[in-house]
Structure formats: C-alpha cells, structure tokens
Amino acid sequence: MKYYLFTLCLALSLGLMAQTAPSTSNPPATTPPPTAVSTGASTGSGTSTTFNTGTNTTTTTPPPTNDRTMGLGARLRAGLANNANVAAAVDNGTRRAVPPTPRPSTDVVEDTPTMDDTPVMDEDVTMDEEVDYFTEYLSQAVLAYEDSDYETAGLYVEFAADELDITNEDDVLLFFEAAASVAYSLNYEEGDTEAANKLLTIGNTKLAAYTELYPATEDNAHLYDQAGYVYYELDFNDDALRFFYASIQAVPDDANIAYMIASTAALTGQHEAALSYLEYALQLGYYDNILADEDLDDDYISTDSDLESLTKYPKYQELKETYGF
C-alpha cells in the first residue's frame, strides 16, 4: 500500500513538472550552443566558406527571405556607424583615380623585382608614417565599392588587410563586412568567382584570427552576431550558425539572435534545434517586437520562407496558435 501511494505521488509530481512553463533565462537545453566559437585555420579554405566554382552548377544569388532584406551593401553602410574613423574618411573623402601601391615593408629586401603593371601612387598623395593606412585603404575600398568598381575595391581591401589591427574589434568587423560585400559583388555581379574567393578567404582568415584570441562575451557579442548575419547574407548558413550560437551564449536574452538561429538551423535541416530556438525567441518576446515595428508586417514569421520546412511539424502549429503569428 505504501509503495502504491509513493508511486502515485511520484507520478503526479512528474506530471506537474512536465506542465511547468519553460524558463526563458537560458537558451534551449535541447540544443546547447558551444561555450565558444573557434572558426579555426580551416575558415576560408573550406567549400562552405567559398563560392561554388563547379562547372556543373549555376551560380545564383541567395534567395530573398524576410531576414535577408538588408543586403550586404546596406549592412556595410550600417557597419560604418560603429567605426568613426573610417566613416569620417568615407563621408569626407574622394575617390582616387589611381589606387596607391601598398605601404612599403619595413623589412629590407634586396633585389626586389618591380612589376610594370603595379598601380602608382597619386602625385598629390603623401603616404608616410603619420597616415592611418588601414583607414585610408578601407575608406577608399568603400568608395570604390559604392561606385561599383569592385576590382579596385578588392585591391584596397587587400591593402587594408596588411594594416589591420587584429585586436581592434570595430576594425575587424568592418573589414570583414567590406571583404564579404566586395567578394559578393565580384562573384554575383562580375562573375569573377576566383577573385571573389580570394577576397573572401582573406576576410575569413582575419575574422578567424580575432575569434581565436577573443571568444564571445557580452562585450563583443555584437561582432559575433553581425558576422553571423554576413555569413547568412552570403548563404553560408553553417558558418552563420556557429557565430549566432556563440552570440546567444554570451547574450542569452537576445530574441533577434534566437530567431536567427531558428532560421539558419531550419535552412540546414536541423529542425529540432530550429523549433526549440523559435519557441525560445517567442518566449523572449520576438513576436511582440514584430508587432511593435511599423516597418514589419504582422505575418512576418508565418511568411518567412526560412521556416517553411518547419510548418509540417505539430510543434510549429502549436507555437503559431499559442502566439498568434
């Protein structure tokens, strides 16, 4: 009799626990994000982070979705807002007719060959040790990019890479955004996949160097989530997920990043994780944010093609009924 009563009480207790509302203080436990993201030395060399060069496939731009509406060009401009030096140089600068050569190395190299086709420096431009070379080169890259001169823009990005302070979060992020934006245009607008992949590899490598030094924290989570958005815009969803996961671990109450994990996880076929993070985003008030945004339609979530693969699951329908999206 005592055993029966104990079993009955235990069953009732477990039943009540199962009905308890899930906590919103942490990301879903069913798909725990890693404690840190390390893009590693392979970043930029793997097929997932370079544009497709196969002869039997057609290169097409990533499909438009609700989240992929900003575009890399607009994202690059928005990124300038967090980098006052480069932003001022872009707003106040003018494009050079001929790009300068890279800053000479301080190393003494004897018998260095010279290339006849190496761009020459403008006569009225003095490049000395007082010049902030990174700002100079990257601002010129942005100006050339905005003039749709992607070849020149790519050259300036390469010059800027050699001047980048890998410990400067704002510079690293803006450099990566610039490299990705120019690479995207070289690939999809110019059809120069080789040049695009070369530039994207440089951007990936610099970003990897930063993440190796600085795992995601509350202080630098912005770099991680913005890098995730860039990879998402490029349609490299596995890479995007790694950065979104790192960001949500550092800032677990960010509804937007939780939703982006749901989107990218769905696109990569990780439906259980996608549903968990969609629920988590809704618990954090994501749909309320949609309703409060005059620029977004109320059916933003239900029409998001990123989540199309989830609509067949009862869990998705349950969330739709519960939250009314």
Overall pLDDT: 78
Q: State the end-to-end CA separation.
A: 50 Å
Uncertain runs with pLDDT below 50, 5 residues or more?
1-25, 30-47, 108-127
Strand content: under 5%
Order of helices and strands: HHHHHHHHHHHHH
The count of strands amounts to 0
Characterise the protein shown here.
This protein has helices at 2-18, 71-80, 84-92, 133-146, 150-161, 169-188, 193-213, 221-233, 237-250, 255-267, 271-283, 286-292, 314-323. With 325 residues, the protein is an all-alpha fold. The chain has two domains: 39-50 and 66-103 and 125-237, no CATH class; 253-325. Helix 2 packs antiparallel against helix 6 (169-188) and helix 8 runs antiparallel to helix 9 (237-250). It is elongated and about 60 Å long. The chain starts with a helix and ends with a helix. Mean pLDDT is 78; it is low at 1-25, 30-47 and 108-127.
What's this model, at a glance?
With 325 residues, the chain is mainly α.
Task: For this entry, give a set of tags.
53% helix, elongated, 0% strand, 2 domains, single chain, 325 residues, mainly alpha, disordered N terminus
